[in-house]
Amino acid sequence: MQSLRVVIAHRTMTWKGSFSAMAIFQIMTKPIGPICNLDCTYCYYLEKENLYADKKNFRMKDELLESYIRQYIQSQQTPMVMFSWQGGEPTLLGVPFFQRVVELQAKYCGSKRIENAFQTNGTLLDDQWGEFLARNSFLIGISIDGPEDLHDAYRVDKGGQPTHARVLRGLDVLKRHKVEFNTLTVVNRKTSYKPLEVYRYLKQIGSRYLQFIPIVEEIAPEPDRNGLRLLKPYSPTQATVSEWSVEPLQYGIFLQTIFDEWVRTDVARVFVNLFDVALESWMGMDQSLCVFARTCGSALVMEHNGDLYSCDHFVYPDNRLGNILERPLATLAGLPQQMRFGKAKEAALPRYCLDCDVRLACNGECPKHRFLKTPEGKPGLNYLCAGYKHFFHHIDPYMQFMANELKNERPPANVMAWARNRKA
Q1: In this predicted model, what pLDDT tens digit does every residue of 339-394 receive, in sequence order?
Q2: Cα(259)–Cα(264) distance, rounded to whole angstroms?
Q3: 305: left (phi > 0), else alpha (psi -120 to 50), else beta?
Q4: 180-234 pLDDT, tens per residue?
């Protein structure tokens, strides 16, 4: 699975709230579409190839690449512009493609500073890649699900062969060339039962910036007319939750178990995006992670042919906004259709969620996961609700302590001693 809905947290700008055509929005660019050298069981994007069944070449053409880079830079009213590259697997395009990216960014940047975030499964990284990524200060998100047995349970290549050893070789390339990286770890049915094993392993291999991404997919009994089996959010079609999806309460236990070790030993040394964003909530700030923000709609996806979609998890014909070669990128991003999409996240919350005591931190989470009914029988309850309630209730005293330290201009890392004493 490739997901940078939150672009690598520790160095990028994040995007939240509603926006106008000339305000900040973020594009996650898929210059090779859904094409990948792996065949991960839980990947939600591989089947998007069916939307472009008539296309044999998914490589983004140079004229589109140039138009996109020019339009995106011009549309951003900020001194720094972040480009996010993912797939599929972007390294399949080769280093020369991204050398061209850097050339075009330099051509159109003007006085703006350009940064690049790049998500990869790591299996194709070599010294040529390492030298290029280091020289151009790319920030890398590398996908790894934990130790070998957990990682290889679902992350296999097209021949069904394990990939863990190849990912570690790619990670060694990044370390050797001193390329900044984050790890992106999918929390699935198997990994959710091994939280400390996963967390300690990620630290062991040198990760200090960790993202945990819950996998939740509904599978329809038959493909739709576009050949898609994974169910579109809000679909009335009867479906079953996939066997690899994380269980709701277990996801909360997974996060809580890692948090308990982190809050006593690793604050300010290891950064977990979910914990950072939770602290934003307890500080009364707008959340920088789209799934927890009050509204959404400012993180869009562009496919290899210039088609723009509302969100990485809403790449369906109904959510296609248009093509940037036919209408300006900024115009498409500010369409009323997209405004409604972003506001619907809050507007569609059932009363059960509106009255919830952890709404300040959750805001109903991602609309993609809202396919359960509330205890009153109303639609729109998030599948992961039980897990988030468990987690946010558990971390409340620690978050209150850290928020108070920050407000009094003291380091939040003081929570470690407080937490150890509290446990004793």
Answers
A1: 999 999 999 999 999 999 999 999 999 999 999 999 999 999 999 999 999 999 99
A2: 8
A3: alpha
A4: 999 999 999 999 999 999 999 999 999 999 999 999 999 988 888 888 888 877 7
pTM passes above 0.85: yes
CA Rg value for the chain:
21
Closest CA to 290 of 22, 11, 13: 13
Cβ atoms of residues 9 and 119 within 8 Å = no
CA distance 230 to 241: 10
Q: Are 343 and 294 spatial neighbours (Cβ–Cβ below 8 Å)?
A: no
Q: How many CB atoms are located within 10 Å of the residue 24 CB?
A: 18
Catalytic residue, from 312, 355, 357, 396: name it: 312
Residue 39 known to be catalytic: no
Distance, CA of 403 to CA of 391 (rounded, Å): 17
Helix then strand count (H, E) for the chain reads 14, 14
- 303: nearest Cα among 291, 289, 319: 319
Gap between the Cα atoms of 215 and 184, Å rounded: 12
373: which residues sit within 8 A by CB, 6+ positions away?
379, 380, 381
In 102-195, beta strands by DSSP E: 113-120, 139-143, 181-187
Tell me the C-alpha distance between 419 and 56, whole Å: 56
From the list 140, 251, 267, 279, the residue with the least C-alpha distance to 192 is: 251
Q: Please give the backbone phi and psi of residue 412, each rounded to the nearest 5 degrees, phi first.
A: -65, -15
118: helix, strand or coil: strand
Residues 6 or more apart in contact with residue 374 via CB below 8 angstroms: 350, 351, 352, 353, 380, 381
